[in-house]
Amino acid sequence: MSVMLKAMDWRKGMVTELGSTERVRNISGKFHSVRPGICLHRARAYTEVYKQTEGQPSVLRRAKALARTLELMPAIISEDELIVGHPGCKPRSITVKPELHTPWLKMDIDKLDERDQDPYVVSDREKREFKEEIAPYWAGKTLYDKWKANCPEDIAWKVNGTGFGSVSSMLFSLGYHYNPDYAEIFKNGLNGYKEQARNKMAGLNPDNLEDIGKEHFYQAIILICDAIESYARKYATTAREQVQSESNSERKKELEAIAQICDNVPHNAPRNFHEAVQSLWFIETIAYIEGTGPVIPLGRFDQYMYPFYKKDIEDGRTTREKAQELVECLWIKMNGLIWFHDAMTASSSAGYVPFNNTIVGGVDRYGNDATNELSYLCIDAMMETRTVQPNLSVMLHPKSPEELRLKVADLVALGLGHPSIYNLRTSVLSCMTLGYSLSESMNCYIKGCNEPAATGGMQYGFAAGGWCNLGMATEFVFTRGLKTLKGQKGSGKRIGVDTGDPKSLRTFDAFKEAVKKQIEYQIKTAHIAENYVLQAAQQDFALLFESMLTKDCLDRGKDVLDGGARVYVGPGIEFVGIADVADSLAAVKKLVYEEKRISLDDLCKALEANFEGYEGLRQLLLTHSPKYGNDVDYVDELAVEILDYGANLVWSLRSIYGNKNTPVNAPASANVPFGFPVGALPSGRKALEALADGCSPAPGMDMCGPTAVIKSVTKLNHANLNGTLFNLWLSGISMSTLEGKRRFVELVRTYQDLGGHHVQVNTIAKDTLRDAQKNPLKYPTLMVRVAGYSAYFIDLSKPVQDHIIARVEHNV
């Protein structure tokens, strides 16, 4: 049994109470006592409906299946809850999507509750039902099956489990990297969209070839709207039933209020702050039932929620304390949204985290600071609940109030890994590169780990679909494209390109060009595979609920997967290991070509032997060539060149929708599993070790202080990517005083002035983390920043934990 599973077992039954009120502390305690599990209601409903509707239009089958799921899903209202609903049938359960999950779940379901990273509770009954009643029907009908049948075989095997250009997250996820336009939804509720669908259907012309088939799309939208209203009213009925048996008069009033709220939203416009929060939560819930997630962020919560909050405060309907309690309840609900994925993707996004970003601060469309009281309330709610979700972020700009900056420092000092800090300028530039206007780009939010997007429900796309393993690209120059590590998928096969005998590369420029050829081949291979995923998704996997809420889909009568959205983004290519390739190139340039202290022949032999018998040569590589992260142009400029080369190539590619592909340098925790298939590198890194995360230095290599680190990182062209990820570790002691927090504020200001896009900070003492590895029972809710998100430390596998501990701690 793994260390991680033991930790999860020990957590079971424990009470960890966090929150500003007794209610929130009770809800928090119950939440933390439950292990994640699965729910088969959706799988059961979709299988039933698909069997009954063979031959019917695909969009109607999808709509009927979603409606049946909502009909079957029980309406459970737990004690003390003010916000009701969940995508699954029990707390912290994830709905199995058979059309997506079946291929890998058939292999994993018997060991799902034992795997090292992100295990799920699965009963014997659930295993039996899935294997005997659900999986057989979906054989050959899943997204993976359709992709595999169409994608060229020479492409497909390379991007599935070899560590080369993977597209696994696209193959088992659908309906993610999507932000509903809550401000628009709140105007008329879902009934506004239903009315629009009715009007569009009434206006169809049977003689117009372009209108043929659209009636099915509009019928599907209307069916879904009716099903969602019935789903919400089911909660109203449950609340009224509980009133009859409730003896506490205050709870009776709360249940009566919940009933009235669920009678009204999300089908109608919310009338107050509580209804707006409940409406939002229903929308989020339905999106996770229809699609898999992750990345269905709340966007600019402090902006679209503020009018409701302000009016309720002015009318005396609520107080700041009651509003914060409601937000804390929402944060815990968000913490219960978990991502269900295969073991490989679990290692890449460790900790059950669905990347649901919520951002505060920023500006309005005219460039004025948009910080308000709700911005601070959101931060206070996170400080009280200490949840890993939502992924709380703040958008800073030159006019951001000093009070907000210091509030951010207070949150950072708690050691939760919250918030992520973003630069408005780089975010706006990135959005404009995607095709948004300046005013649209000013109203930006962050989706996923740290990819900027414009608010307004205009965008659909896979911001992070494929991967480019820069460590493997470097290794393949020495192996001529062969994967040499034994016992792994693809071992002994040529996965990359043959760039010739490495010993024949007479100049450093020739060596560098060979690395670029490997990178180019990876990117183009992943790009082809991605487009075949999109093509397969179009066939029978409509996302009708998300389509309804996406600009232009209703006007065009088309699903988001069929070209209905106004703006498409991606699929993106994630770069993993920029520091590894830069450090490797610098070592080869300096020690092989310039100083000639190491021959290419000896270097090839040392790498092939994983430095066994060549420790002296390895130490030379580690200590006598500059490392990225120390403000040394010699190596930093190589990082800039390689990342620009890869990014520009990705920008030049197009998806099947005609939009630009997007380069991203925000690989979550994928640097750990993507390091496993990579052999030894000239940087001195040994085979199987993790690669560097995001645009951060390799672990242990940034030895010249935080200012040197940020000067290296900001040499990269952050605005030329759709997101970059930078991890920084600062001493908790140095962040414990007001003076230290002010120094931190200035450090972040300098980082952003120099062009940095994103930074996130850990402040937990390393000794505490090491003790948590040995005694997880003592630390059920110890949080750390992993990559573009925070996670509970004991939810992470030991390799991920070790990589986090290996990061250099700086004083501020």
What does this 3D model show about the protein?
The chain contains 34 helices and 17 strands. The strands form 6 sheets. The chain has a 6-stranded mixed β-sheet with strand order 3-4-5-14-13-17. A 3-stranded parallel β-sheet has the order 9-11-12. Strands 1-2 form a two-stranded parallel ribbon. The longest helix has 33 residues. The chain is globular, with a radius of gyration of 26 Å. The N terminus is likely disordered.
Record the strand order, biggest sheet. 3-4-5-14-13-17
Poorly predicted runs: 1-15
Structural class: alpha/beta
Percentage of residues in strands: 5-15%
Rg (CA only)? 26 Å
The description of the largest β-sheet is: 6 strands, mixed
The helix fraction, in percent, is 40-55%
Task: Look at the structure and give the mean pLDDT.
Answer: 92
Tally of helical segments: 34
- Sum up the overall morphology in one term: globular
Number of strands: 17
Report how far apart the termini are: 41 Å
